[in-house]
Amino acid sequence: MTRLNLTVIGERINPGFKSTREFFDNEDFPALQELAKRQVAAGAKYLNLNAGNRAKDDPEFLARIIRAIQEVVEVPLSFDFPNVEVQKVCLKTYDPDKAKGQKPIVNSVAETRWEMMELLTIRPFKVILMASERLEDGEAKPNITGAEMADTAHRVAVRLVKECGLAMDDIIVDIAVSALIADTAGMNKMALDAVRRIGSDPALKGIHMSGGISNIGQQMPAKAADGSNLKEQLENAFLTVAVPLGFDYVLGTPWRDYQKLEDGNPVFETFKKILEAQGTDALRLVRKLYRP
What is the structure's pLDDT at 292? Predict the structure, then answer.
């Protein structure tokens, strides 16, 4: 197999992972430092930080985590909080000199949360731009087609460049990756259509695309029908389609083996059929992935 050319944003510093939650609960900073180092050693170019609800309630705890991580690694951080006040703490604490001068990432900016861009008064940053929602007549609306996601990405990215001085290289569009086990409405097909449209938009040349790739295997068994690693293969199946279309970043686990799947791979062939199905037909195909 061929390794996919991706920039990995390490996702593991997040209490949503059972293996990480106790580090937060126990304020085990050495363990969080080791987790940061492990992700970088495995190839992460950025580290995502999500401290859950405690980020809002205990800003000093959040600042301590940032300082602890920056003591042991030199990659930039991605701050995963859709909250201006929390992001202020992150950006004021972040030391670019400890990341070889590289900008942090603010995750996440949206057309419906434009106030996030006021944070540029603190320091320069890259953004993860949510393409899953748009502002229409003053209200937030969900994007439910690839065309809507692409139109939103185009409109907001151009505005970020013109009004905020960002380069396209500073913008990473988040393409929502859905749990396959519950995708009866073709959300992953829609996401891949959005990737194709954004990647072929000449006005967005140089922009990046990413997504939380581990979402696709949520609640799925660990093993495929043939005994192979099902979740890893599902991640690779999505990426095998998406990367040639311009999807070049991934929020994921750095020690995953992100490889291109070849035609004929059982999981990949079933995944392609699932993309064309909906409703109970899609669910029946999903079950075939893990039932002999």
Answer: 78
